[in-house]
Write a structure and sequence with these properties.
Largest sheet: 6 strands, antiparallel
Distance between the termini: 53 Å
Bound molecules: adenosine-5'-diphosphate, 2-acetamido-2-deoxy-1-O-phosphono-alpha-D-glucopyranose, magnesium ion
Radius of gyration: 21 Å
Oligomer: single chain
Number of strands: 11
Helix content: 40-55%
């Protein structure tokens, strides 16, 4: 097998971690658009996940790792159902990160996790059962972390889901037009501007204390759940970089946005982009089967809205990055961020048309589960 670029450098980094065996192979995993990820296979057949942290985004990698170590140990000791959770593997010296310096003394920060085998992470969901189990996994994550003391959490990215601030940042990027791209995106810019009010809804509810802060994942994209490749059961929630206090609504909405779209986030043929209601129902059922008894009325009545709000937020973020010259998300070609923004705006339109249907189903489903806490149901 052909060795990847940087093989020797990565091999040295892997050898710094507290694992045994000889390295047989190192392969990249390219589906995340933030960090740089590899899987290493060792001679004892164990596999490990090596990740270079994107320090352009996560400026304080040690604070980030403190969050992740605390949250993963909490889950590992409080979740009876946990089968194969994420575990941080330290270096031989006991550090959570391995620091690599290049010839210009520029530092890169690497971390290692157990690689969870026998599971799949989907970029696009094709069957309702996967949507159900993704909703269940993120609902379960939220339910288990209800017991985690929020004060212990570091804010790894400030204002991450402050949609009002996201709108202001997008507007600023449009006005600055740093790389002269705004002419290519007038239609999309106008579509976002016509929806400014939508950006206030969840932020205002939080500010006025009408809905609670919870310990939330904040990046509930479908490929951040690992699903058992044989049984389709959820195995683990991964990508814990953004676990922070937030609104559960963003997590629910983001899950629907990514697991229930009928197309990939960067599909160019917009006629393929819509919300699949079968998958929507399945995801909602899975999520509410875990979380219904704990939700406040205003959380439930804004669930359908949240799908629209987070999808608009993503459209703004992709377009902002396009206008800034692609400085945040990884891109594969020149207009990648513009394609993503167009795709998300098409999804917003589709969601707007389906909000009444969504609300009806959420209401029905909520009633089915609201009086039944998980422990009552398990004891039946
Ligand atoms: P990013 O922040 O760039 O999205 P992720 O942490 O989500 O990075 O990792 C990228 C991908 O790597 C995931 O979507 C998943 O496919 C895979 N992955 C990450 N962690 C593990 C793990 N511990 N075991 C197996 N696969 C993993
Ligand atoms: C990023 O890390 P990843 O690829 O799972 C981003 C999310 C976006 C998502 C869109 C830290 O998620 O907020 O919703 O891309 N993560 C961060 O694909 O910005
Ligand atoms: Mg990810």
């Amino acid at each position: 097998m052909e060795k990847i670029k940087d093989y020797d450098r990565l091999k040295k980094i892997i050898e710094k971690f507290n694992i045994t065996g000889d390295i047989i192979s190192i392969n990249p995993i390219n589906n995340g658009i933030i960090n740089t990820t590899y899987v290493a296979t060792l001679s004892d057949e164990n596999k490990y996940l090596l990740q270079k942290i994107n320090t352009n985004i996560f400026k304080e990698p040690y604070r980030l790792m403190k969050n992740i170590e605390n949250v993963t140990s909490f889950i590992n000791s409080n979740d009876a159902k946990s089968k194969d959770n994420l575990t941080v593997i330290k270096t031989k010296e006991g550090a959570p990160l391995c620091v690599d310096k290049d010839e210009f003394s520029h530092k890169s920060y690497y971390r290692m996790y157990n690689f969870i085998t026998g599971s799949t992470s989907y970029d696009k969901v094709d069957t309702p059962i996967i949507a159900y189990n993704t909703g269940k996994a993120f609902g379960h994550f939220q339910r288990i972390l209800k017991g985690y003391p929020m004060v212990l959490l570091e804010e790894t990215i400030e204002n991450f889901h402050n949609t009002k601030k996201r709108y202001a940042d997008f507007l600023e990027a449009y006005q600055r037009d740093a790389v002269g791209r705004k002419e290519n995106a007038y239609k999309e810019i106008c579509e976002i501007m016509s929806r400014e009010e939508v950006c206030n809804i969840i932020v205002d509810l939080l500010d006025k204390k009408k809905i609670p802060y919870r310990v939330t994942h904040n990046d509930t994209k479908v490929n951040n759940v690992l699903i058992d490749s044989k049984t389709n059961e959820p195995v683990a929630v991964i990508d814990l970089d953004t676990v922070m206090p937030g609104s559960g609504l963003y997590d629910y909405g983001d899950g629907i946005r990514s697991a229930c779209s009928s197309a990939l986030e960067d599909e160019k043929d917009l006629s393929k982009v819509s919300i699949d209601m079968e998958k929507f129902k399945a995801y909602t059922d899975g999520y509410l089967s875990e979380m219904a008894p704990y939700l406040k009325p205003l959380e439930v009545s804004n669930m359908a809205n949240s799908v629209k709000i987070i999808t608009l937020e993503l459209a703004m973020r992709f377009l902002e990055d396009y206008l800034n010259g692609d400085t945040y998300f990884k891109t594969d070609y020149d207009d990648h961020n513009l394609v993503r923004a167009k795709n998300q705006l098409k999804l917003v339109e589709e969601i707007e048309n389906k909000i009444p249907q969504m609300e009806c189903f959420i209401d029905e489903c909520y009633k089915k589960y609201k009086g039944k806490s998980k422990t009552m149901r398990n004891s039946k």
